[in-house]
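Why do we care about 3D structure at all? Because function follows from shape, and shape follows, mostly, from sequence. That is the central idea of this module. The next example makes it concrete: a single protein chain, its amino acid sequence, and then its structure expressed as tokens.
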Amino acid sequence: MAGLSTDAAVAAFREEGGRVVAALIRLTGDWDLAEEAVQEAFARALERWPRDGVPAKPAAWLTTTARNHALTRLRRSSLESAKLREVATLGAPEEDVDPSGVPDDRLRLMFTCCHPALPLDGRVALTLRTLAGLTTAEIARAFLVSESAMAQRLVRTRRKIRDAGIPYRVPPAHLLPERLSGVLGVLYLLFNEGYAATAGDSPSRHDLCVEAIRLSRTLAALMPGEPEVEGLLALMLLQHSRRAARMDADGELVTLEDQDRSSWNRPEIDEGVALLDVALRRGVAGPYQLQAAIAACHATAPTAAETDWPQIAALYGELARRVPSPVVELNRAVAVAMAEGPSAGLALVDLAAESGKLAGYHLLPATRADLLRRLGRRGEAAAAYREALALAGTEADRRFLSRRLAEISDAD
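And the structure:
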């Protein structure tokens, strides 16, 4: 029974935590206090629910407990009584007035959080932390920065909100487009963390992928004709279509070239390709459409050998031109290696390593190790695999790299 109560607390926090945080931020104007209050409510739920039972309305319980904690803190700070009265009357989050026309609570709050007065990376990171439930460490890995650097970025963003008096309120419908880039960034990184988890026992988090796809579908219905919204949804569907083939019966990672393509989800592939075609016909190919086009090359190839690697390399080249990124350059190196041979790809990987922008990113030495293995340079490959092993964040990644290292060692 205690285990079920704990699961209920975790589920309630995951589903409702962002909404309660948002309501408290709106009323108190204090991001730190709002997050502290919700964390305190969650801690109390973990303590009390196993003993007293799960309340009939878990979300309302979290809201009330968080509100009471915020009230206590405000009283201790001797803030104005008007603010105290506002927080004291806080009800369930669904009572908020909605001028946006966005039909989904969580998506509406993402638009609220992604204020255009904030730097794009700051608003995306803050929304992932506050509303999507990702930890500072997970967000840091997504941005390829240290956890301390990301923590400082979040502090600076909150400070700007406070010092500039940026209001936390649901934007009206006509202001949604200026916030779209931030919301797309949040959904993209939320899906990525689900598709390829950066830490933990599992290489993926299915719940995050499903939620990102659901929100992207809602966004596509809300803003029809937006090619990058269609492109992002297409990308998610094409990537998600391979989920059943990414691990074998023993829970081990399976590389793309070795996956059983008959287990790929054909309806998701068909929908993703159709969405991409619609988006591309609009004549404004953005980064999400380019990534979806790359995913479509993989998803529509009958076999690994028939993959159009020259086209994928060209698409990565265009993507790198549009959105310069060391991760894109690393992926382009892999595509070049498959199209022109491992030596050509290795030269690009070495350039990426020299830049220092991917320091600490385990896929850099892992990619280098694979290309060295293909070239028969087993000693260098083994050293690179060991480096990747030391950096890998998930158990599944470490087991995969260990197997590769063992294969090289057994061949000596």
